[in-house]
Design brief:
This protein has twelve helices and ten strands. It is of the alpha/beta class. The C terminus is likely disordered.
């Protein structure tokens, strides 16, 4: 039984209806099915590819990191943006809304453990998890669920699109939205696993010299935002491909603050000199082409700071790209066969 969990309301998924019978005219709200992860009668999906959308309504980590809270409303806002998107995928694809984990009455660590249980449940139902935050503390709970599920069958490489390393010390004050990837490192090393972490979009002005030192000491690979903005991103494909080849699985996490505020104003930590979404999508499509991605999250969308739902819409488009690209590849069954369920 997943604690601090609630089923999403059917009424969330609403929008325009062009046809009630022609799938080619459908939008996401007409195709998605709301399910309860605590329903013991649920059977694992046995079709080609299913996506399980799971919300983490938590921004405690942002508050603990002295940031601007508001991302707890991200899952609701992103769902609203997704609802009216067209079904640009085959009817073999299934979409499930797997509800939300919420932190009320829990410490951040406890809430992250609840999220880990929910992610593991989604994986055991043979679904591809799409986790929507919430603050970037989402990543530690998300990874714990992935690690529980996959640790005996291979290594997990993390590719983080982010302006920040998020590897601050946590021993004295506990975890936050700025510590997750150090916590993941410690978890993996404690379990005898290698730590494989790459960050795309790092901003020099957003990270201390100490964090850059930590990156060098722990073999953390990174690409600076300024080099992406001014250069040919395909020149980085070889190093990204090498990173992917060295691991068995890839987990992609996107902190929406990696993008310029022109595209993503609704965030905790705005980035005026951030990335262009089109370039990020090129990276993402290249990563997906290696057929190793097992999960994805998008975090730090803060509706209270958004303008005309621009940031939520961008998050929805990124999710849309994941779904349509993986549908075109039709690889999910092969990936799941690596893990005995």
């Amino acid at each position: 039984m997943i604690k601090n969990y609630r089923v999403e309301k059917d009424s969330t998924w609403k929008g325009r209806i062009d046809s009630e019978t022609d799938f080619d005219s459908f939008r996401w709200h007409q195709w998605i099915e709301v399910i309860d992860l605590n329903d013991e009668n649920l059977k694992p999906f046995d079709g080609n590819l299913a996506f399980g959308i799971l919300g983490f309504e938590c921004d405690q980590g942002i508050g603990l990191n002295k940031g601007r809270v508001g991302a707890a409303m991200g899952p609701s806002s992103i769902r609203s943006a997704l609802a009216n998107l067209p079904c640009q995928f085959s009817q073999e694809i299934k979409l499930f809304d797997c509800g939300n984990v919420f932190p009320e009455g829990l410490t951040l660590d406890e809430a992250q453990k609840c999220l880990a249980d929910a992610v593991d449940r989604v994986l055991n139902l043979n679904m591809f998890p799409i986790v929507i935050g919430g603050g970037h503390e989402t990543a530690f709970g998300h990874f714990q669920g992935l690690f529980k599920h996959y640790k005996d069958s291979g290594s997990i490489g993390i590719i983080n699109f982010d302006a920040h390393f998020d590897t601050r010390p946590y021993e004295e004050n506990g975890g936050s939205s700025g510590t997750m990837f150090r916590q993941i490192r410690d978890l993996e090393l404690e379990e005898g696993h290698e730590y494989n972490y790459k960050v795309i979009g790092i901003q020099k002005h957003s990270n201390t010299k100490s964090l850059f030192n930590f990156a060098h000491e722990n073999n953390i690979k990174y690409i600076l935002a300024k080099d992406i903005v001014s250069g040919d991103i395909t020149s980085y494909f070889e190093e990204i491909g090498e990173f992917i080849r060295d691991v068995d699985y890839i987990y992609i996490t996107v902190d929406i603050d990696v993008f310029s505020t022109a595209y993503a104003p609704g965030v905790s930590a705005p980035t005026p000199l951030g990335l262009d979404p089109e370039k990020a999508l090129m990276f993402i499509k290249y990563i997906l082409s290696h057929e190793k991605v097992i999960s994805f999250d998008i975090v730090e969308v803060s509706p209270r700071f958004d303008e005309d739902n621009t940031t939520s819409t961008l998050a929805a488009i990124l999710i849309f790209t994941f779904v349509t690209k993986l549908d075109a590849m039709k690889t999910r069954k092969r990936i799941f066969k690596k893990k005995s369920l």
